[in-house]
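Suppose you are handed only these lines of text.
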Amino acid sequence: MTASRSSSPVFPTGGAALGLPEDAAAQTRMVHGATLRSGFDETAEAVFMNSGYVYGSAEEAEAAFDGTHARYVYSRFRNPTIQMFEDRLALLEGAEACRATASGMAAVFGALACQLQAGDRLVAARALFGSCSWIAGELLPKWGVVTEFVDGTDLTAWEQALATPARVVLLETPSNPGLELIDLEAVCALAHKAGAVVVVDNVFATPMLQHPLQLGADVVVYSATKHIDGQGRCLGGAILGTKAFIEEVCGPFLRHTGPTLSPFNAWTLLKGLETLALRVERHCANAVALARHLEGKPGVARVLHPDLESHPQYALAQKQMSGGGSVLAIDFAGGKDAAFRFLNALRVVKISNNLGDAKSLACHPATTTHQRLTAEEKAIQGIGPGLLRLSVGLEDIADLIADVDRGLAAL
Ligand SMILES: *Cc1c(COP(=O)(O)O)cnc(C)c1O
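From them, the structure of the protein bound to pyridoxal-5'-phosphate can be written out as follows.
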């Protein structure tokens, strides 16, 4: 890319322009891929912190607007720094295209709202992130969308719900905080027979551990706030899918409604992608080690992590994920009192409802993230009074083990 106006680029793609080998591996692409180097030859990607763009002539402005000359016109539509993040994430996901959003919820809402209309059916897994379940269960029905929730782990329930045509299927696997898995291949096949577009919230798996598009999903959404940033700095989200879906269905919705990511946050997330593989590897190793350490300890009724042989869907985890992720759940026999004692005794792990961070973070879903649910809904989703969610960070594992031992001693 050059800084000269006369050769204004037509949304260049970085990898090829930089001479990156076609067969460069994922980690190499996460460091170099999709870079749009400006005429100043900077090493790190530039932050294009601008809202608008200038034209060399009235004719050029006209051509930009009638679509004969594809170029940047306004940062609500496209921006080079945001585009670098989108294109690099698309390379990692193996998606044809990507659009970034200001938060994970803007991505989930955009991916649904851009394709649903009054009268359409939405079939969703019951165990969804709180705000996703509000959109599916409360907001969209007010707009005439008929939502049906199913137990995501029950293929017969999916089969029954998808015996009637549906427009969209929404699911999250592993789920939050119960770490339930959904068989992506099986559900995608059923959904496609019902004519539905499958949207997968892949936050817990991260782009490193599970590839929903390869298992039949049509659209993948992320809260980039979680592992993609992974260092507690900013909010962000992304929607990935085919070029046709992103450019023709999703693009106009985002362009006109404006849930745009800040270029600065896009830059932060772009740098996050450079280290994502390394971080996720350590997150997983620490999470499994901690889960194994906690399993069977006095006062611990159950530890849930997809990589534990005791996980009810261990075989499915082995089949569709290359690692179980950074989050584990602990069910304390002593209920809320035990969970609170454990939390209050921790010195390294912080009490926070965030996850996917370098810092280990723990929370009590029943009284925080999932407080809004009725007692019956909590019971269905396995969110008991003794359940604690632990997002395992990048600290030294010996310190984390010492910390949970402090918590156990306080039971
Ligand atoms: C955090 C999260 C979201 C929402 O993302 P924000 O960036 O907070 O808007 C959606 N789905 C899942 C599974 C999440 O963990």
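What can we learn from it? The chain has a mean pLDDT of 94. Residues 277-409 form a domain with the Aspartate Aminotransferase, domain 1 fold (CATH 3.90.1150.10).
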